[in-house]
């Protein structure tokens, strides 16, 4: 079962929606994806509340920078590329773009918000979307 993330037309797996979906919606009300001010780094409270579910889904904090990373492994290149295409289209909707690296069936992703110098709600949103895409394209 999936849940639509209405503000930008994204679909999240139900388990992930239960963990962070309602928090993403409340963040939308206070900080729209596109604002003149730009995103701000997550507060300590937001970091705990929003990053913990991602860390439980195999995202890792990056040593030496305020970023998260994850490595996805797929059956073959076609699945990996389908995942990247899906993620890229959604990244455009979110106006946020990943650092990533692909070799055959593996896609390594690092997320951080360069404009604010660290993790922001944009990274949490994109990580959630990428996990949903990976589930759709059968990541191992």
Automatic annotation (TrEMBL):
Q: Looking at its record, which EC class is this enzyme?
A: lyase
Q: Which reaction does it catalyse?
A: (4aS,6R)-4a-hydroxy-L-erythro-5,6,7,8-tetrahydrobiopterin = (6R)-L-erythro-6,7-dihydrobiopterin + H2O
For this protein, the record's InterPro entries field holds:
PCD_sf (IPR036428), Pterin_deHydtase (IPR001533)
Single Gene Ontology MF annotation: 4-alpha-hydroxytetrahydrobiopterin dehydratase activity
Instruction: Give start-end of the signal peptide.
Output: none
Tell me the keywords, alphabetical order. Lyase
- Top-level division of the source organism's lineage: Eukaryota
Q: Which GO terms describe its biological process?
A: tetrahydrobiopterin biosynthetic process
PANTHER family xrefs: PTERIN-4-ALPHA-CARBINOLAMINE DEHYDRATASE (PTHR12599:SF0)
Q: Per its UniProt record, what HAMAP family does this chain match?
A: Pterin_4_alpha
| Family label | Belongs to the pterin-4-alpha-carbinolamine dehydratase family.
The protein's name is: 4a-hydroxytetrahydrobiopterin dehydratase
Could you tell me which species this protein originates from? Answer: Macrostomum lignano
């Amino acid at each position: 079962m999936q849940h639509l993330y209405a503000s930008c037309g994204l679909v999240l797996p139900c388990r992930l929606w239960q963990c962070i979906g309602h928090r993403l919606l409340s963040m939308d009300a206070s900080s729209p994806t596109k604002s003149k001010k730009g995103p701000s780094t997550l507060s300590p409270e937001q970091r705990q509340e929003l990053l913990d579910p991602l860390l439980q889904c195999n995202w890792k904090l990056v040593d030496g920078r305020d970023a998260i990373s994850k490595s996805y492994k797929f059956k073959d290149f076609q699945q990996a590329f389908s995942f990247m295409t899906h993620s890229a289209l959604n990244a455009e909707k979110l106006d946020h773009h990943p650092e990533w690296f692909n070799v055959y069936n593996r896609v390594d992703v690092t997320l951080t918000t360069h404009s604010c110098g660290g993790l922001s709600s944009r990274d949490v949103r994109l990580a959630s979307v990428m996990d949903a895409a990976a589930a759709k394209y059968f990541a191992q």
